[in-house]
């Protein structure tokens, strides 16, 4: 395994921080849209998805059928977007914190790598999941101040679940990369 030097840690953390700030800006921009604008965006995305599916699957649906399906899928599309935003947020937070908390070094055996990684996961979870939860809560509070929008605790939970999913993906990605590096090192 390659040892991560301080410069590399700073570069990785800095890039993740820049993208996190951009993500916060994107979330804030979506949250400050009034209910009609926000609903229109979700509807437009749903319509495009249905049009693409119609073309790919050669369904030849009528305009009325596609409009009906788009309306049906508008709410799930909005919720999937919430989930994905916060999964990405957790991934970026992982990119900020993991270089400093995670294990990086070349003197560890496979067993030591697994042990050290699993020892540090609770610390990453204690930092990242509350951060995602608080961010989601502030987003919903912000929506209370926007016309025709409302805050929803269920959205906070959905966003936090997205953050948990993103964190799990990052942790398993690190494990897979480390296993591949160990195999490569043995050859």
User: What's the number of domains?
Assistant: 1
Cα gyration radius (Å)? 21 Å
Residue stretches low in confidence (pLDDT < 50, at least 5 long) are none
What proportion of the residues is helical, as a percent range?
over 70%
Q: What's the total helix number?
A: 5
Shape, per Cα inertia axes: globular
Structural class: mainly alpha
For this entry, what is the oligomeric state of its chains? single chain
Major beta sheet summary? none
Strand content: under 5%
Average pLDDT number: 87
SS elements, strand count: 0
Distance N to C terminus? 13 Å
SSE string: HHHHH
Describe the structure.
The chain has 187 residues and is an all-alpha fold. The protein has one domain (6-34, 82-186). It is 84% helix and 0% strand. The protein is built from 5 helices and no strands. Helix 2 packs across helix 3 and helix 4 packs antiparallel against helix 5 (153-186). The longest helix is centred in the middle third of the chain and has 39 residues, at 63-101. The model has no long low-confidence stretch (mean pLDDT 87).
Compact overview of the structure:
The protein has helices at residues 6-31, 35-57, 63-101, 110-144, 153-186.
Can you lay out the helices and strands and say which pair or pack?
Blueprint: H1 6-31, H2 35-57, H3 63-101, H4 110-144, H5 153-186
Helix pairs in contact: 1-3, 2-3, 3-4, 3-5, 4-5
Task: List the main descriptive attributes of the protein structure presented here.
187 residues, globular, single chain, mainly alpha
């Amino acid at each position: 395994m390659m040892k991560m030097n301080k410069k590399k840690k700073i570069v990785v953390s800095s890039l993740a921080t820049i993208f996190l700030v951009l993500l916060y800006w994107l979330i804030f921009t979506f949250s400050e849209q009034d209910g009609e604008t926000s609903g229109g965006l979700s509807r437009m995305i749903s319509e495009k998805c249905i049009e693409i599916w119609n073309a790919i699957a050669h369904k030849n649906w009528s305009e009325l059928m596609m409009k009906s399906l788009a309306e049906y899928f508008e709410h799930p599309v909005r919720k999937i977007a919430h989930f994905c935003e916060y999964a990405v947020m957790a991934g970026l937070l992982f990119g900020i914190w993991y270089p400093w908390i995670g294990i990086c070094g070349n003197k560890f055996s496979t067993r030591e790598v697994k042990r050290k990684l699993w020892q540090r996961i609770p610390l990453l979870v204690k930092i990242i999941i509350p951060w995602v939860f608080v961010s989601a809560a502030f987003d919903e509070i912000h929506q209370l101040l926007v016309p025709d929008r409302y805050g929803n605790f269920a959205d906070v939970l959905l966003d936090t679940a997205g953050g948990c999913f993103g964190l799990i993906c990052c942790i398993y990605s690190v494990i897979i990369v480390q296993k591949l590096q160990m195999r490569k090192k043995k050859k």
